[in-house]
Specification:
2 copies of one chain form a homodimer. Chain A has 415 residues and is mostly helical. Chain A has 2 domains: 2-283, no CATH class; 306-381, no CATH class. Helix content of chain A is 65%, strand content 7%. Chain A is built from 18 helices and 9 strands. Chain A has helices at 2-14, 21-50, 70-83, 85-88, 90-95, 104-130, 134-137, 140-144, 146-155, 177-196, 203-223, 231-255, 264-281, 285-291, 293-306, 339-350, 370-378, 383-413, and strands at residues 53-55, 64-66, 160-162, 172-174, 319-321, 326-328, 331-333, 356-358, 363-366. In chain A, the strands form 4 sheets. In chain A, strands 7-9-8 form a 3-stranded antiparallel β-sheet. In chain A, a hairpin with a 4-residue loop joins strand 5 and strand 6. The longest helix of chain A is centred in the last third of the chain and has 31 residues, at 383-413. The first copy, chain A, is globular and about 80 Å long. Chains A, B: Keywords: Endoplasmic reticulum, Glycosyltransferase, Magnesium, Membrane, Metal-binding, Transferase, Transmembrane, Transmembrane helix. Chains A, B: Belongs to the glycosyltransferase 4 family. Chains A, B: It catalyses: a di-trans,poly-cis-dolichyl phosphate + UDP-N-acetyl-alpha-D-glucosamine = an N-acetyl-alpha-D-glucosaminyl-diphospho-di-trans,poly-cis-dolichol + UMP. Chains A, B: Its cofactor is Mg(2+).
């Protein structure tokens, strides 16, 4: 009943009498969220039947849950992006269609965004299906970014970046081919940074929703201000991000503790690509990177274990304590490390960047992920409370980045 | 060795010194064919492992073969279409890039073609994976056609068709919304017509290759002639069709009798969408329909059984005769039909449109498919010989349609 009403409100917003594209975009998001919420429980048994399933190891009874549910969100989200096309260009169709003023380059950019997101969704499903090797899947996002890079090349070919005046190297510098390498690397970063900061119910979708809200706030600051040359970029970003955030909400609820299903690599990759697309086509990739502070910290903090300077167990997720029902930091056995490494680890423990458990025969440290570090600082937490803390951190960081970005930019580049 | 050489020739053609887009397109097709040929045997075990497999029931030992191999052709084909973008627009990038003359509307059309094909590939995989119900999958092609229809709407919005002068109703008639319904229906037809004219090793890919060659011949007649307004449409069609035909050839070889793997619904849908896309964006959907004579005949001929006027067994494929190793027409038991139906069936048998086996207690007819009808006329055939006959028929019909189209058009519409 409530859902039907929400769906009808969504439809009314899509076909709003003033034909405002932004309102239509919001309407698509609302209607879509209702459809996704309805489809998730319907699709779950089919997913398990096909073999898309996994155990939730942080629960007492380790239930078998459907996987790859990000596919449902992804497919309906893409569907709404496609149906939105005539609404995005409505005013051009009615007012200036006959003068040949139609902005085909904007349509091409929008289509390339959809193509890249859809390509990543396919590659994500392929990964969930065939369990691709790490060295193959690492580069998949760069492949999925090709449509966007091709259109970037033929549409703008602009590969120069603005330099701050104090460098005294001229106002811009042309990076040429390097700029495409940068965009490819940016896509790889966006998709993998969500995928490695994961493992708790609600964390993958939650961080995506929080990042999406930060992007929308930043877009709003441009769109609501006086007309400026980058306004169109931020409108495009909003058209892509707004329905994404809304279509992710029902998945977040479904995946929230205690989860009824997992989102799969499919969601992490596909969500990462949505961010890569708005960052590149909206020309604010550096701002977007600044929102990803927790993800970047998590990645850098993980490096000693990823490079095996510190022993790295196969799974670094927190440990479920059956008695308390809470999560505790998981540990790596560092007894066999040489004394220099041990000294460094003890020093890090002084700064509370790690926790050390040591007795005469054995030395253990907490695994180096932001999730474990949070447990080290706050103490054992129930899974959903831990997710909540991490998402709050993400949001606070994002807001701080927005404030700094808009204040610092004035300082560095002038008003 | 030979494959490496072919791959290098493909690369040389892509980066041909004269920067001819058509030569690059051919080069992509050649290089792609080599990659697909190499990937098919590599991917086959993974496909079986994931559950994409089926038995070849028209063989003595009914071997288990990998399914859904059309996915391999499809993914690499899409990949080559994306990488082709800068080559397609090379002359615009170098000559007139700075004057803002870049043909963004053509880029948008090309991107929408890729999007529709990719959407259909995804839906095809979903069908092979989840075994969708017939009433759901029937409309999938119309959904996959949405990107193209949206771009058609904002790009041209032209929904009028040219009328022949003798109707005396004016030179054109605007079909409005009906034209979009027509394009949706056309997509549904193209994808399903290949899917229901199937079941023999090599038939699905073979008919697609033959249809593709007919489209290319028709395109060539326009491209090689004097400059005309529709030349660009046929260039676009060639850019899409040429690499498709070439990437399908290794799959045809792999699927040829005795097949080492099946192409899956994935290939039938995806190939059908390639035809729908060139028909719509190339503005020659009616010509394309005329090439599909055998498919249309097969569909109409099947109707009495599809509507259960004549009993329809679950499978209507020919029957494998273990003694001769040849295929014979499969039969439907019509003993329980009323006498009117029996009379009609006996009359059809007189015109050799069906075969009847009748004795005192039982009456059987050959199942009403073009495949069985061919066996009725020619007699039992080995599977590959039957496929060969059907493909020859397809090619002969296509050539006839091209000749008629170019001669008849002059008669009806004037020169």
């Amino acid at each position: 009943m409530l859902k039907t009403a929400a769906f009808l409100v969504g439809l009314a917003l899509i076909f709003n009498t003033q034909r405002r594209a932004l309102v239509s975009s919001f309407g698509f998001g609302v209607a879509n969220a209702v459809v996704v919420a309805k489809m998730l429980p319907v699709a779950s048994p089919s997913m398990i039947k096909v073999g898309f399933s996994g155990r939730d190891v942080l629960k007492k009874d380790r239930p078998l849950l459907p996987e790859t549910l990000g596919l449902i969100t992804g497919v309906f989200y893409l569907f709404s992006l496609l149906l939105f096309i005539p609404f995005a260009f409505y005013h051009h169709l009615t007012d200036t269609f006959s003068d040949g003023q139609f902005p085909h380059h904007k349509l091409a950019a929008y289509l390339s965004a959809i193509l890249s997101i859809q390509s990543m969704l396919m590659l994500g499903v392929a990964d969930d299906l065939f369990d691709l090797r790490w060295r193959h899947k690492f580069f998949l996002p760069a492949i999925a970014a090709i449509p966007m890079l091709m259109v970037y090349y033929v549409n703008w070919g602009k590969t120069s970046i603005v330099l701050p005046p104090f460098l005294e190297m001229g106002s811009t510098i042309d990076l040429g081919f390097l700029y495409y390498a940068y965009m490819g690397a940016f896509s790889i970063f966006c998709t993998n940074c969500i995928n490695i900061y994961a493992g708790l119910n609600g964390l993958e979708v939650g961080q995506s929703v929080v990042l999406g809200v930060c992007v929308l706030i930043n877009d709003y600051l441009y769109i609501s201000g006086p007309p400026c040359p980058v306004m169109d970029n931020h409108l495009l970003s909003t058209y892509i991000m707004l329905p994404f955030v809304l279509a992710s909400l029902p998945l977040l609820k479904y995946n929230w503790w205690p989860a009824r299903g997992f989102v799969g690599d499919t969601y992490c990759y596909f969500a990462g690509m949505v961010f890569a697309v708005v960052g590149i086509l909206g020309h604010f990739s550096k701002t977007l990177l600044s929102f990803c502070g927790p993800q970047i910290f998590n990645f850098l903090y993980s490096l000693p274990q990823l490079f095996h300077l510190v022993p790295c167990p196969r799974h670094r997720m927190p440990v479920y304590n059956e008695k308390t029902g809470k999560l505790e930091p998981s540990r790596a056995d560092v007894s066999k490390c040489n004394s220099a490494v041990k000294t460094v680890l003890r020093a890090l423990a002084k700064f509370r960047l790690i926790r050390v458990w040591e007795d005469a025969s054995k030395m253990e440290v907490s695994n180096m992920t932001l999730i474990n570090l949070t447990l080290v600082h706050i103490g054992p937490l129930r899974e959903d409370h831990l997710t909540m803390v991490l998402l709050s951190l993400q949001f606070a960081w994002g807001i701080l980045a927005i404030i700094l970005r808009h204040q610092l930019a004035k300082l560095i580049f002038g008003a």
